[in-house]
Amino acid sequence: MRVFARLVLTLLLVAVGGLAGFLSATTFRPHFDALASQITGNVVTDDSGGPKILFYRNPMGLPDTSPVPKKDSMGMDYIPVYEDAGGASDPSIVKVNVEKVQRAGVKTEPVAKRVLEEPLHVPGSIQLDERRERSITLRAEGFVEEVYAGATGQHVKAGEPLFRFYSPQILQAAVEYRIAAAGGQKRAGARKLLNLGLPESYIQSIPLKGELSPSLDWLSPVDGVLMKKNVVVGARSMPGDELYRLADVSTVWVIADVPEQDVGRIKTGDKATISVRAYPGQAFTGDVAFILPELNAETRTASVRIELPNPDHKLLHGMFADVVIDTARSGEVIAVPASAVIDSGNRQVAIVQVAEGQFKPMELKLGRRGVGFVEVLEGLSEGELVVTRANFLIDAESNLQAALTALTSADGSAQ
Description:
The protein is of the alpha+beta class. It folds into four domains: about 1-90, no CATH class; about 105-115 and about 330-415, Beta Barrel (conserved putative lor/sdh protein from methanococcus maripaludis s2 fold), CATH 2.40.420; about 120-130 and about 250-325, Efflux pump adaptor protein, beta barrel domain (Elongation Factor Tu (Ef-tu), domain 3); about 140-240, CATH 2.40.50.100. The chain has seven helices and 26 strands. The protein has helices at about 1-25, 30-40, 100-105, 170-180, 185-195, 200-205, 390-415; strands at about 55, 65, 80, 95, 105-110, 110-115, 120-130, 135, 140-145, 155, 160-165, 215-220, 225-230, 235, 240-245, 250-260, 270-275, 285-295, 300-310, 320-325, 335, 340-345, 350-355, 360-370, 375-380, 385-390. The strands form six sheets. Strands 4, 6, 21, 22, 23, 24 and 25 form a seven-stranded antiparallel β-sheet that branches. Strands 7-16-19-18-17-20 form a six-stranded antiparallel beta barrel. It has a four-stranded antiparallel β-sheet with strand order 8-15-13-10, with no helix packed on it. Strand 24 and strand 25 form a beta hairpin. Helix 4 packs antiparallel against helix 5. The protein is rod-shaped and about 120 Å long. It starts with a helix and ends with a helix.
């Protein structure tokens, strides 16, 4: 029995010796060294004389490290983290393997001065120019004998007859005018007719001799569109009754609803581009004429008036409009692409490339936002390279490095 036990022990010793010799072969040396470092806690040294490998970290930035090479659940190799050859480096600098940077598609762009394009997109509606509306109201009692402009929406021109009107009061004033004119008091005789709202052209047409027409055609004072019509043939009209309301639509207003936080960006004279659904692909241009000095209490928006030429009368009262106001101001500012800014809600950060494979996060103070670019007030200088693509990967590297640094510091203080 003792002889058998000695034989088994001898065979085991031979097997262990053979395994040690096999592991010492060149093919398995790195894995053996990594295993040895895991057991002893020493840093693995690259045989090529390069920097020492401290550990391997998760390629997706997860807080998972390994003392030996391995792959994650997606088959990606863990990335080696090397010991700093200089001994003391900036702890805020993130070092990423150049090959890893290329695979991730990291792109940089220099910080430069530029003029920001700041279009403001807001909804609006087409409204009539209130200064170009005209009410046709008589100052004398009378009766409507004929209606020429008989439909709402009808276009009329200045001097075109609107209706035919008989008024005893106007007829009496016309007779008195003839008597005054015959006595050389034409101006004094015309005063009553003018007070009744009769135009100068009608007064000049009154014959000084012969039969006097008992009725007159009331002419349109302006070019416009009939917005209201309150007259029918045979109707009796009393002083103060509005018979027509005309609107000159050759110029219209666009009332844009601007959110409270954007009101400060708009100035009188800013250019605006308007589009409506009735004419897709066609743009109308105008200028900001006035900003109403009050907010809508329910929507918290300000009404901004834009004057818009409408010579073809295409734009109709009440149409909805999409308004783009150009709020860009002259002068260049330091700006970076919007994709370069990492916004956590509490702070804004950009990743700056300080050298090949070395990056540093910089906290920013931002200003105005334009089309694709953001003004930088503090944190960057002109000419610096900022990462515009795959910056979240480097940010994850930075967070992981900060966590490991904090963990190392905690371990050192505990000792």
